[in-house]
């Protein structure tokens, strides 16, 4: 009985891919038998996966994630003094709810 050296992990896939490169029209069973003839034991599922895989463009086969729309902001930063002033005004008008009503009315006047 002849013992063959065990292939390193991941050595079968390049072997199958090289065979597919040499014989692009080969069927899966032909690939397996061709690798067996060279001394590499390859399962049918590995040859099938390498023959018919669709390469992704570096996305690992995942669908692109939609990003939330960025909120439009002004280029000028809001200072703490402005925040304190607006808080005082909102308190004098009756709170945030009342300020929102007033802003909605102003927006409706446009």
Determine the N-to-C terminus distance: 92 Å
Cα shape: rod-shaped
**Oligomerization state:** single chain
Radius of gyration (Å): 33 Å
Largest sheet, if any? none
- Which runs of at least 5 residues are low in confidence (pLDDT < 50)? none
Percent range for helical residues?
A: 40-55%
Binned strand content: under 5%
Mean pLDDT: 79
Structural class: mainly alpha
Count of strand segments: 0
N to C succession of SSEs: HHHHH
Alpha plus pi helix count: 5
TL;DR?
This protein has helices spanning 12-22, 28-37, 44-52, 80-93, 96-108. By secondary structure, it is mainly α.
Describe this structure in words.
The chain is mainly α. Helices cover 52% and strands 0% of the residues. The protein is built from 5 helices and no strands. The chain has helices spanning 12-22, 28-37, 44-52, 80-93, 96-108. 7% of the residues are buried.
Topology of helices and strands:
Blueprint lengths: L11 H11 L5 H10 L6 H9 L27 H14 L2 H13 L2
């Amino acid at each position: 009985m002849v013992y063959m050296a065990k292939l390193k992990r991941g050595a079968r896939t390049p072997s199958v891919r090289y065979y597919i490169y040499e014989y692009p029209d080969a069927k899966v069973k032909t690939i397996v038998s061709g690798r067996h003839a060279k001394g590499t034991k390859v399962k049918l599922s590995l040859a099938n996966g390498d023959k018919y895989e669709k390469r992704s463009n570096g996305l690992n086969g995942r669908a692109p994630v939609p990003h939330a729309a960025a909120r439009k902001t002004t280029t000028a930063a809001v200072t703490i003094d402005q925040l304190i002033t607006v808080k005082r005004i909102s308190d004098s008008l009756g709170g945030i709810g009342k300020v929102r009503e007033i802003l909605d009315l102003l927006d409706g006047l446009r």
